[in-house]
Amino acid sequence: MQELPNRLMIVSNRLPISIAEQADGTPTIKPASGGLVTALDPILRQARGTWIGWSGTNEADQTVDQLLEHAANSIGYSMHAIHLSQEEQEKFYLGFSNEIIWPLFHDLQSRCNFDPSYWTTYEQVNRKYAETIAQHYRDDTYIWVQDYQLINVACELRQLGIDAHIGFFLHIPFPHIDIFLKLPWREQILNGLLEYDLLGFQTNRDLNNFLICVEALLPDVEIDRSGEYPLILHADRNPTKVGFFPISIDPQEFRAAAHTPNVDNLYSQIREAFSERKIILGVDRLDYTKGIPDRLQAFSALLETYPELQQKISLTQVVVPSREDISEYADLKQTIQQLVSEINGKYTKIGWVPIHYIFRSLPREELLAYYRAAHAALITPLKDGMNLVAKEYAVCGPDDGVLILSEFAGAAMQLSEHSLTVNPYDINGTAQALYNAVTMPRLERIEHISKLRHSINQYDIYWWVDTFLQAANVKRSGAIEQGSS
Ligand code: ADQ
């Protein structure tokens, strides 16, 4: 019987920290918050865990390594930084990851820049991650790699002769075969994924898309569908187990954080500022997948079609700056600004501005206060792996709030029955859903949101971690159970 791993190593593009400067200019480490970190924290502590990722700084920086070493005691697990040169950041992160995989996997192939030099750097940086993993890996470690920037890590590890148990979770969608076929490195990406022992997707749709691509492009593999999870069998390597594990949030933590005196205060200020008006809320990273321009147009169509709603409703759109070094993102920022000013220019009346546009990362308390104040959330990505904002609003929003959700968000697979689902490309259909949201009887709204909360309580972030690790045959304690494949 082989020796079974009992340590856990998480590998992600970025480490769950940021480096900030103290008043005297010396750098210090701030632990990041967020669902993934919160859920993995206790497990990493129990399992004498390690987290490997890019620190966010340029090149090798000894200070970062020293800071991380010191932080290990207070954080409870160790962290090791990958250092990336400027060129690597450009070609691996902005290039292959965010100008090829990101748009293609979100069905937006026209936004891809298939620059051949990106692939070489992607391979090279994935090798760098693998080399750092190899330095800190022991025979009893389970390695769990996160997301699309690191697809090739298992392949690089195998080339280094590491025969570890390795799992991978894809946070973004997996596209339909007609789209995937456009990728010049399609076989390499599929073969890279098949070096993992367990592959997790957000939804059944993503999983099926992946299996169809495997069947079409890799005729030498077989798929065994007889067990709980499909198993991809190869002639010359370990089988790959595949499943879908919809990611979630910690609803208890969100509810508690949304009901502190500070948030109460901010909530009252928002509600007072908007007086009796209905508040519709959009919250997104700056990204063309989030459907922000189409959403603004839908709001404009609502005001046009139902003029009686003018002065009675406002859209608050929060956009968090992201990836502005890529021209597509800088262009999107312009488009959004232009649309906001056109719509506001057309409809604003004394004491009423239709769209409140916030372009910055809000402090968490303010974001939670907006969730609480909003009568409806308008979440209309053109495509999204999951979309956690939808779950956060359902949990923190008012007891009679309404969730309007794109049918192309992974979250719709779980939440569509109790939300108003829309095709985000359908401007008039989305406007109509908005009208339905603000005219829906209160009891109906209460019933729907309580069902959404029930589902999110049941399938929370801890359920996600547990289910994935169980599929990997890893117990919460970090020990791999006997018989893992
Ligand atoms: P993202 O594309 O970043 O994540 P999302 O799931 O909506 O999208 O998560 C955004 C997170 O940022 C939320 O937790 C939200 O609270 C936070 N946030 C949003 N606006 C903020 C603001 N103004 N200030 C501070 N924080 C803010 C990717 C995939 C998603 C998938 C997640 C997790 O694209 O589809 O759901 O990973 O797997």
Automatic annotation (TrEMBL):
Its EC number is 2.4.1.15. The keyword Glycosyltransferase applies. Keywords: Glycosyltransferase, Transferase. GO terms for cellular component: cytosol. It holds the Pfam family Glyco_transf_20. The keyword Glycosyltransferase applies. GO terms for molecular function: alpha,alpha-trehalose-phosphate synthase (UDP-forming) activity; trehalose-phosphatase activity. SUPFAM superfamilies: UDP-Glycosyltransferase/glycogen phosphorylase. One of its GO terms (biological process) is trehalose biosynthetic process. Belongs to the glycosyltransferase 20 family. This is Alpha,alpha-trehalose-phosphate synthase (UDP-forming).
